[in-house]
Amino acid sequence: MHRGGSLLSPTIAYETWGTLNHERDNAVLIFTGMSPSAHAASSTLDPASGWWEEIIGPGRPIDTHRYYVICVNSLGSCFGSTGPASIDPRTGELYRLTFPVLSLEDVARGGYEVVKHLGVKRLKATVGPSMGGMTALAFEIMFPGLSEGFVSMSSGPRSLPFSIALRSLQREIIRKDPEWRNGNYPRDSVPLTGMRLARKLGMITYRSAEEWRLRFGRERAATTDMNGDQFGQVFEIEAYLEHHANKFTGQFDPNCYLYLSRASDLFDIAEHGSSVEAGLAQVRVKRAMIIGVQTDFLFPIYQQRELAEGLEAPGREVEFHALASLQGHDSFLVDMDRYRPLIASFFA
Amino acid sequence: MHRGGSLLSPTIAYETWGTLNHERDNAVLIFTGMSPSAHAASSTLDPASGWWEEIIGPGRPIDTHRYYVICVNSLGSCFGSTGPASIDPRTGELYRLTFPVLSLEDVARGGYEVVKHLGVKRLKATVGPSMGGMTALAFEIMFPGLSEGFVSMSSGPRSLPFSIALRSLQREIIRKDPEWRNGNYPRDSVPLTGMRLARKLGMITYRSAEEWRLRFGRERAATTDMNGDQFGQVFEIEAYLEHHANKFTGQFDPNCYLYLSRASDLFDIAEHGSSVEAGLAQVRVKRAMIIGVQTDFLFPIYQQRELAEGLEAPGREVEFHALASLQGHDSFLVDMDRYRPLIASFFA
Hints:
Two copies of one chain form a homodimer. By secondary structure, chain A is α/β, with parallel strands linked by helices. The first copy, chain A, is built from eleven helices and eleven strands. Chain A has a domain at about 15-160 and about 265-345: Rossmann fold, CATH 3.40.50.1820. In chain A, a hairpin with a 4-residue loop joins strand 6 and strand 7. Chain A is globular, with a radius of gyration of 20 Å. At the A-B interface, helix 3, helix 4, helix 5, helix 6 and helix 7 of A face helix 3, helix 4, helix 5, helix 6 and helix 7 of B.
């Protein structure tokens, strides 16, 4: 592991779409944000819609007629890859907090092992939104020359104190739930309240104030749940947060959430050089596309610009897009009318 | 009370500085943000520094040689005024959640009763930051003609869903602390964890991402408190939040916090007319100054502009200032180099 410790025979879950060509050089490697699984798009094996369904598929912006698309579930996550919720083969017990400190460099290495295992010779591009963008950036520095292109969305070269503060608070909310039990909660009794509250905080920062003003305004909730006091759901925005937080909770393992969240804090490309610039100077791709959104709280637009400018090099084509999307950090998941043409053009 | 219910013989705590003149028309009435007391500045009775020490005093921007300055502790608060932590004289028990729904209109009326009690005939201005700005606005509509001027800072004509969402989450964090006990916590065992976490969320939104980037960057904490796991304080920003949240907690009564927080959500000047514009059209002051900050998360700068534009009327002087302060919503407390001259010029 990047910051010490080791795992015995870890598993990395992945999904693929399309076919690896004879030259083994048409692969696209996708890293995810903090919480999604490797199921980025539907397939015959799993027809459920994926988290980037409109982008990946035959005739879609990342066209599976042309590309062999790979998406990995992050090391440390709980959707098939080894993480704190997995059994440590050395002890026969769940790792829980004995899992070593997780870094995005470890997540990147997980992706590399999958690429190697699949016999890919060269990647057309690595692609990542949010935490996945930082992971893809780590990948580019750790495995130079393997990838021709790099696409970063709503991401940056390092985590800044504002997003560290938000994630730190989310983690503390989970850790202060008595049901967390210092990480030793039973599988059937996870700290649901802490997870629900942390998720609400996430949702508040994943979108934008302007989107909510237009969507919800000061509308009152149709059904109010006052829980015997006046502090229940009065406004539509409160009902919306409650509904979506409940959907998330129960799917994601709390300890995995803590590890991936801290791994995001720890990421700093400057650790791969003496500065952000020196770190970025080690990237070897031929083409890069950096997409940011003006309403993003977590990775402000100037970080996207810093990333794009830091990647500029003789003979390299770097595109920088500052989108006016209203949906904030999560725009890459929802503002498809803006993302579809950009991704399609990069992969055309 | 504005939304039903009543209080028997409520108390409104206040402090004053300077002397009411013979014409009884040199008073300035200050409403506070959600958590401060009426102690806006030091005095001979209480020499401790107040929350607006640099603004109020002899020779200061609100010059107590000229003005009779009054600051009230909000109804519903816990620094002398009647609130959920007070004893209901009708039952001999603490109000707790039997306190009626609180509105900023009630807080405004509390200020009015103080003004009347002090024999003030006419106010030079009402002044309020944040929640206090909305309270002062309510005051102007409820008691038209009493005040010549109106100064709003980091405030707006209504609460928007983004700030409602944040406050709703803060309230839920407190209410989900088992120590809250549905509002019936003993006086010596308040829900400290919930209050601490809610305060951290407040602090994250009271300042700005840019300020923290410049102040803390990715500095590591001098003393790390890992609490036996890797999720304790690693970064300086985490230690900063912990330090300041601990300072706040214990001072503020949790139920009072819930009531004042919800009162802020509920405020909408449009309830005093058919729209924000119609509500604002009822204000009768001769002069108004609206100060907003470009980095404010809770009351974005366009709300300040909306407020200023809505107050424009023939023969009225309306100043609008969009400050470049880095300190976000809290700038009125800290960016004194920008605020001092503006307030001084208004009161000159």
